[in-house]
Amino acid sequence: MSKNFTATLVFVFLFSLSFAQSGKKVYTLKECIEIALQNNLTVKRSALGLRNADITLDQSRYTMLPSLNVSGSGGANFGRSIDPTTNLFIDQQINNANANANANLLLFNAFRVLNTIKQSVNDKAAAENDLTKAKNDVILSVITFYTSVIFNQELLQNAQFQLKTTQQQLERTKKLEQAGSVPLGNVLDLEAQDATNELNLIQRENNYNLSLLQLKQSLQLPASTEMEVEVPALTVEDLSLDQTTEQIYDLAKQNLPEIKAAVYRTESANYALKAARGSLYPRLNLNAGAFTNYSSAAKIFQNGIIDPSPVIGYLGNDQTQVVRSFRSATIGGEIVEKPFNNQISDNIAQTVSIGLTIPVFNAFNARANVLRNKVTKEQAFINLTDVENRLRQAIETAHNDATAAAKTFASSAKAVKAREEAFRMTKQRYDAGASNYVDYQVSENNLFQAKSDQVRAKYDLIFKKKVLDFYQGKPIDY
Q: In 95, 155, 189, 254, which residue has its Cα 20 to 30 A from 415's Cα atom?
C-alpha cells in the first residue's frame, strides 16, 4: 500500500463511541494527527525546505534590480609621499579620505535571469508539495497506528468476553459437579480452558499496549502518557469497487502531491538548462559611478591679492620689454588648508558606461555546466516516470487488496453467523448433558476465532477502501 495519504482521511474516524478508563484522556484521531504534525521532525524539515525555496525565489527576483555599492576609506601618509594636489614629492604627513559609489544594471544576458526566476518558482512549488506529502505520510502513519489500537482493543474485548463466558460456565459446572450431575473431569477441563483464556487475554492486552505505545511514539509523546482512543462507529455497507485501476490512476495523477512535485522538478530542470545556456551568450551591462576625495595637502589662498603674472625682469637697453613669470604671485594674505566640505563637493567626479562581455573561452566551464543541466533534466524525467510507475503499482496493489478484503469480510461475516448458531446449539446440548466438554470447547474457540477474523477483515476493508477513495479524490462519506 502506498505510504502517501491525504488530510481528507483525518475525519474518517470522527463519529465514535467512547472506550476509556477513568482518569485517562481520550484522544480522537483528529487530535492525534494534529499532535503528530506539530511534533514530527520530517514535517519540520520539509517546512524549512519550503522556507529556503521561498528565500531563493526572492533572491532570484531581486537579481533583476540594479546593484549599488558604496565604499570609502581614510588614512594618513608619513614621510616622503606624493602631494595629490600637485603630484610633487613632499615630506610631510598627509591625511586623506575618499568615497565612491558604483551602480550596475544588467540589460541583457540571454534571459538567464528570467529563466532562473522560473526555475525558482517551480522549485518552490515542488517544495510545497513535498511538505504536503510529508504531512500525508504522517497522517497515514498515525491512522495506521490508530487503527491498530482499535483493532487490538476489539480483540481484547473479545478475549474478555470469552474469559467471562468460560468463568460463568465453570461456576455452573462446579455446582453441577457438587450436585453429582456431571463428573469432576468436566470441572477440570473448564479450569484448564479458563487458564488458557486468561493467557489469551494477557496476550491480547500486551498487543493492545504495544499498539498504544507505537501510537504514542508516532506522536512523539512519552510512553508514560495516559492515553485512550475513541472507538469509531464504523460500518461496512458497500462492498463494490466501481472504478478500474486505470480510472483511479488517472485521477490520482491529478491529486497526489508527489506527482505534482515531480512534475514541477522537471519544469525546474528545463528552466535551469535554459539559464545555463544563457552563459554562452554576450552580456550587456549599464554602469554608473561617482567619486570624491579629500587631502590635507590641498591649500587655498585667502585674505590677499593674486598677481597672475608678476614682473621678474626687463629686456633691452631701454628696459621696455618686460619678462613675466609663468607662476602667479601673492600680495599679502595667507595659504591655508582647503576645508573638508569644499573638497568633497569640488572633487566630485561622475562616470557612465555600457559594458559588453562576450564569452570566448573559459576552460569549457560554461559548456560543462550546460551538459550537467542536460543530465539533470533527463534525471528529472526519469524520476517523474518512476514516481508514476510506483503510483500505478501501488494503486493496482491497493485495488487488488481491497477486492480481496471485500471477499474476506463477506466470508467472515457468514462464518461468524454460522459459528454463533453452532455455539448456541452446542451450549444447549452441553448444558443438557447431551454433549461433552471437547465439543463445547471446540465450538467456543471456533466462534472466538471467527469473530477475531471478522474484526481484522472489517478494519482491513474499511482502510483499503478509503485509500482507493483518496486516490480518486472522492470526499469521505461516513
A: 189
Contacts 24+ apart (CB under 8 A), 423-431: 423/447, 431/172
Distance CA 436, CA 185 (A): 11
How many Å apart are CA 78 and CA 90, to the nearest integer?
10
pLDDT tops 80 at residue 328: no
pLDDT of amino acid 104:
93
Amino acid at 394: A
Q: Which residue has the cell 444447549?
A: 428
Contact by Cβ (8 Å): 437, 427: no
At 363-386, the pLDDT tens digits run 888 899 999 999 999 999 999 999
CA dist 11 and 3 (Å) reads 18
Distance CA 335, CA 280 (A): 59
Among left, alpha and beta (phi > 0; psi -120 to 50; other), residue 364 is: left
Q: Kindly report the pTM of this predicted structure.
A: 0.76
Q: CA dist 187 to 42, 50, 175, 346, 387, Å? A: 58, 69, 10, 118, 63
Banded pLDDT at 94 (limits 50, 70, 90): confident
Determine the residue type at 328.
S
Q: What is the secondary structure of 82-133 as a DSSP string?
A: E-TTT--EEES-EEEEEEEEEEEEEEESTTHHHHHHHHHHHHHHHHHHHHHH
pLDDT at 179: 83
